[in-house]
Amino acid sequence: MFSSKGVRYILVATFFFALMNVGVKYLSHIPAYEVVFFRAFVSLVVCYLLVRREGLNPWGNNKPLLILRGLAGTAALTMYFYTLQHMPLASAATIQYLSPIFTIIIAGILLHESAKPIQWLFFLASFAGVLCIKGFDARVTPTELIIGVSAAICSALAYNFIRKLKGQDHPLVVVFYFPLVTVPIIGSYTLIHWVTPEPSDWIVLALIGLTTTVAQIYMTKAYQLERASNVSNYNYLGVVLALLIGFFAFGESIGFLGLGGIALITLSVFMSSRYRAVSDEQRQ
User: What is the H or E stretch that residue 93 is in?
Assistant: First the structure.
């Protein structure tokens, strides 16, 4: 099922993104923009060291597209962190996982990689599983919903820019441009509206930066190895991880709809993977 290297990469990325969600939610007493800044600053340092170790040109080749990827990622991250801190965790994660749907729509426009009708069925089934897990949450305000959907759209744009950069720039350079754009944009605002973290918060901030850097690297590799329609569906597993982490770490209960959603998402991912594998074999 997970024989593809690109699929394995997106699974690793999904796991580390789930850890990031927990850290951001824990730091709800710190403004979202400040968490974004520290996340980006840690990533900037780590990515620069990795780029230099590999002997790569940190400025890349397709600079306009790299900057666009950075801008889209910055907007998505800032809005998503805001929803994580102002909504219930499950609600914020659910809305963010609309991004695979937007990814496929945008990929058809930018990359001419339209999904097959059967793949749309798998995507819709996955999203139905998300709705089963989450259900309707009346605590989400219209403004928060708009911000959450906008974050998902910006994430989808970033994913497609990553895919479009395939063969033009190394994955580490693509990841490096994300914090390279984020730090000066968010950093200036953070310095003006500074909120001093508690001593224990510094550890969590550092871990958020490290986990998201790992996630970004593996996500970038996945989208440069595979078609967007082949890997984006696996993002839905992040909702399953969030549900399981909530259950085992925080004692949150899982109802019948939640268990049904887990089964539906798992089945959809399995069927999508099998369809891709059969299609690849037929093309060979």
Answer: helix 89-96
